[in-house]
Design a protein that fits this description.
Length: 286
């Protein structure tokens, strides 16, 4: 039985919801084991997932995305170590994953009226106290940027974080530096990383893996990282804007086992306009 739990804990969430429980009674029983729900990687196609969930579980009445995500989080019984939230994740569901005070409940359909959802605000981050890996998509970061840093501070076991175009990276990193003592991996994609944010990165004492692929970062900021992050084992700065690779950077990065530099440019010229990185549309033309 332990072997089956180990195997089912590796399958995708939609299979664990819509296929595994219907194989046989023993598989259904195993699918309820919280160990199978330690990796909460939500699908990114809202309508398809919601429609299938309602068909399989025969939900009646309006379906709440919040209650769907919350019910999945509850299945982990606070054992979840990886959480990849979809773009359609609501503020209430995000906060619910951070709340450690709520008791556990079996998966069930619960329609939550809007007023009740507001009353339950701030009920999500400590719900996954064992969380080690977190990924937040761009749309969710845009909508809920104000609450992200405080929720991050509740995931004290967090080790790795992936963000897409965060608007308050410095504040997030400050919370990580204060509360997440085992943190070692950061991925920031398609964003702008300025000197103050680089200083926050350098202040992370145990940073080993840093992925800044496709970001705008100035050369002086990159030098700060190379000189200040002495424990780096991987640095990915491919396809960045703001600097060009040269021998000096290679020498500064000689202590890094995996240094990925290709494709970076000082700037981009397009149709006689200067093109610099912009966090909203990808590029801004002057």
């Amino acid at each position: 039985m332990d072997c089956l739990v180990n195997v089912l804990g590796r399958v995708e969430m939609d299979s664990l919801l819509f296929a595994v429980p219907y194989v046989c009674k023993s598989w259904y029983k195993v699918s309820l084991d919280p160990v199978c729900w330690k990796r909460l990687v939500f699908p990114h196609f809202e309508q398809m997932v919601m429609k299938r969930f309602m068909e399989v579980y025969q939900s009646i009445g309006p379906f709440s995305v919040t209650s769907f995500i919350n019910s999945i989080v509850r299945r982990s019984n606070r054992l979840a170590t990886a959480l990849v939230l979809p773009d359609y994740c609501t503020k209430e569901a995000l906060e619910y994953a951070a709340d450690e005070e709520l008791g556990s409940h079996p998966l069930m359909y619960v329609w939550t009226p809007w007023k009740e959802r507001n009353r339950r605000s701030f009920e999500d981050a400590e719900r996954c106290p064992a969380l080690k890996v977190l990924e937040l998509p761009n749309d969710l970061l845009k909508r809920e940027s104000a609450i992200i840093p405080e929720l991050i501070s509740k995931w004290r076991n967090l080790e790795q974080l992936r963000l897409e175009r965060p608007s308050n990276l410095e504040e997030i990193l400050h919370q990580i530096s204060c509360h997440c003592k085992n943190f070692f991996g950061l991925s920031v994609i398609d964003s702008e990383v300025w000197e103050n944010e680089v200083s926050a990165i350098v202040s992370l004492p145990n940073i080993k893996y840093l992925i800044l692929r496709g970001t705008f970062i100035e050369r002086k900021s990159l030098v700060m990282i190379l000189q200040g992050c002495n424990k780096l084992e991987l640095l990915d700065i491919r396809d960045c804007i703001g600097f060009e690779g040269d021998d000096e950077l290679l020498n500064l990065a000689s202590h890094i086992n995996a240094f990925k530099l290709g494709g970076s440019k000082l700037s981009i010229w397009h149709d006689e306009y200067y093109c610099s990185y912009d966090s909203d549309c990808g590029y801004d033309y002057y």
